Amino acid sequence: MSDLVTVQNEPAHSESTQMTQVDPETAERFIAEKNIGERIKRLRLKKSMGLVELGRHTGLSASFLSQLETGRVIPTLRNLARIAMVFSKDLSYFFESEPHSAFRIHRQKDRVRMPQTGVENPSYFFESLGYMIPDRAMDPYLAEFVPQEKGVEPRAHLHPGFEFLYVLHGELALHHAGVRHVLEAGDAAYFDSNTAHSYQCAGKRPASAIIVTMHQAPQAASAVVRAPAVPAKPAAG
Hints:
Strand order of the largest sheet: 1-2-3-9-4-7
Number of strands: 9
């Protein structure tokens, strides 16, 4: 009995309890970082569903759902389960870490100017504008094409996906499917890179262009091919 009396007379919060107690503000911040309201709103808009309609499915009022989406209230697990079931999601969907958006700035001073490979006299030089982005679905380049001697033909090649170019300066010849097109500053082209193509300076002065190659599996526009680990040369002959 004396032991029980001693325990009952101890303070309600011992020092050890105070040290391990979760701070309410920390808990609130933890919940806010999960962006539960934003996730609910994305699911709703993806289904083109209004707040009133979602309310009918969940038994929750539209005003309450609006407060959920704006982060003014925190849902109970019961209410969150109702919402998850409407969208065929598990509760864990609202607590899993969201992937970070790809974002990278490439400063001009950090880029490397590379010559065309495999030839003694390069017909172009290029700088990769996306070399630090992992698992990228496209490769952007700044390319400069230098004048060539007469009779020198560009080497045509092809690759899965699509290609886009925008001419910045000079005249640039685009050979595509056996047809030669001359583009000037301000002109652009978008084409299927599964067809043989090449580039060549068409003037007496160098031509520069932005070239973007988009990697896709042959005959499957929805299948994205993982980009190589090292910069590949731009599509040119």
